[in-house]
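Retro notes - structure team

What went well: the batch runner handled both jobs without manual restarts.
What didn't: labels got mixed up in the shared folder, which is why I'm recording both outputs here explicitly, each with its sequence directly above its tokens.

Job 1
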Amino acid sequence: MIFIYKTFSFLIYLAVYPYARLKAATGDPLWKGRLVLHDNFGQKNIWFHAASVGEVKIIGFLVEYLLEKNPSLSIFLTTMTRTGYKTALATLGNKVTLAYLPIDTPPLMRKLLKTLRPDMLVIAETEIWPNLILEASRCNLPIILINGRMSARAFNKYKWLRPFFVKLLARYERFFFKAEDDLKRYLYFGIAPEKTVCAGDMKFDAPLPDRSERKIMQSREKIGFKREDFLLVAGSTRPGEEEILMGIFKNLKKRYEKLVMVVAPRHLERIEDIKALLERNGFGYNIYDGLSLNEQVPPGADNKRNSLVLINRMGLLNELYLAADLAFVGGTLVPIGGHNLLEPVWGGTPVLFGPSLDNVMEAADYIVNGNFGARVDSATELEKIIEQVLRGEKKFAVKSTEDIQRSVTAKVGRYLLERIENG
């Protein structure tokens, strides 16, 4: 099976090489990273790998902790996606050396490992790149999984390839898991129990943003709303969810004039479809790109005051959640498995979400147990709770700085520092 994967990955490399080499020659960091054509970065203590934005944020907490304890550490971070790279550049750019992960072929992974000569490889959550793992293992490099997770859906796929995963996961030195369910699923693939730690979810160690009244007002003014408006922010929405939200908004707006809503779809290529949906429902709306508002008034729309804003740029949700009175996180009312439920909670905003939670079950339990939001099982229930909050009949708790313990980050961080010190 590993031979088949190696052959397949090499064929992909051959197929994309001409295009990738051309893009790399123009200075595109993604393709320079994919082909390992960047400058020699020199030796590093730790190589971290994160898939995208969520994993980058988790690693960010750990990098802050490690550098606080040992400022002389040299850290290298790879990501898979452009959004992950941008997030890392914005939050960790002066603390780590940053690049994109190479195409997963043995020669490219060997080349990068030879350049970095790291003391360890630390992988966040669910990234399993066979050639990276095999080449790191051949260099006798400790491989450590942090915030490890495996959803029930992923497990049902991976178990058909059990012998393949048994060979790969045996190369890891230590596993830090988010929850017992994740640990149990990994044990199915033959990992030694003594290599495992159920540490908890590092997402709960996130620092809280500035929630000052000035910051909230600035954020609202950017999207054209007043402090007295009741702002509902629907983030990371998926197909089918916008229709539900528009129906709820239309019903409630008749009774609550102060209700306004922001919709931030998960994928920006769907913007035109959502515009068409808004126009079919007779909504006037504004488009916000992070810099300016662009008013859209379709024929027949009530344009006295647009109370809907459609977001057409990534990376704005943190600020939007901070400005909101209530949030809804998508991928939960349709069978996707959910997106980041904790972002609004960290912004001080209660969050509502649907029953599809395969990817975020621990966060959902944490939110419900702390009364930081609520799960709904239908569009009818979602509308009911929004109205209860509007009427002041339902109230939620607000996350405070005192709740942030950094206990998971500290547990993982201590292990990494001891491992480096002891060689």
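Job 2
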Amino acid sequence: MEPSASLEAAKHALMLFGIILAAGTFSGLLARLGRIPDVVVLLLAGMLLGPSVLGLVNIKADSTINQLILIFGSSYILFDGGASIRLKVLKEVWITIVVISTVGLLATAAITGVAAYYFLGVPFIIALLLGAVIASTDPATLVPVFKQVRIKERVAQTVMSESAFNDAMGVILTFAVLGVAVGAGEFSAGDVIIDLFKQALLGIVIGGVLGYLAAFLIAHEKFGFLAEFAPVVTLMAVIGAYISADGMHASGFMAVFVFGIMLGNQESLGFGLTRHEGGELEDYVMTTAFIMRMFIFILLGTQVDFGLMSQYLISGIAVVVVFMLVARPVTVFFCALPDRRAKWSFKEMLFMSWTRETGVIPGALAGMLVGMKAPGAQIIASVTFIAILMTILIQATTTKWLANKLGLLVK
């Protein structure tokens, strides 16, 4: 009897998972030996394993399994990032985070759009759509980098919090501009910002409620009967927070980030695990987050289309250079300098200007535009992957060096 097609598909998927886990483990070891962020080596490993080189891993960007890995993996990494945020630090810098994630993202998209208009020679609305796609930073990259490179607390937590907030803004802005590009509406910066605040606020409420409930059931002195199941609760709650928020048209990523903040600050809520239980939970979260990084960045690497990139390589690099060296610094200094409460130093703002890797969310948005056959989608996808490669390979690898030069490393 011949094996069924579904059984063969399952075996093939299992083999792919094994290859990714093996490659991810080896990449993690190389990253540790080379003392560089593991996301860089994982991305390179994915490019090597992908259809353009060895052809060992070929999972389509629009496949269900790829979307599942991206959504859950990004959510869990965001949860991990949220758990490392301290509320006392957040109180000092929340104004900067809000401004840079809203007004700042619009400014980044606009400056990048102008650069794309001149260097690529595309209609301005297509250039602006490209700017919107790559404007948001990537928490799946930034959180692991700041886990491995110990930066001054308030700087690291500001950048991580911004990345959680501006993902939602990037998605909203992209589809607002897309509506104009296909003739389905008019762009309004005011409407975009209002929509963002609605989605973010609802996401914060959902994440806060679920986070408090999880902390209560895990760490309450009398009613914490789920303490020994804390790792499973985190998995369940991350999924629940994302799905609940998304179902209510709120930011799922914001919900899981706030859920992580609540669980990571349970002492401030009046709860607390024993040292043994807390250590077990921390080890579990760290291991799970690393596995998610393996899958996300290796898959992202396998989906880099070198043929498409080569068509717009020189002009695309020029756009990304303006994006990195002009749009981001202008955004950071414009948004952070007026925040008198945070009292940012020049060195801190300079570091934040450099640390803004592009990754999972922009890559997913570009893939969606290609699947929808949106105007200019091929050009947008090409420049997006150039931005992903340049920011991760250049900025992530130099994070520790720059922090050391600016005196922002924690010894």
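One thing worth noting from job 2: The first helix runs from residue 5 to 34.
We'll revisit the folder naming next retro.
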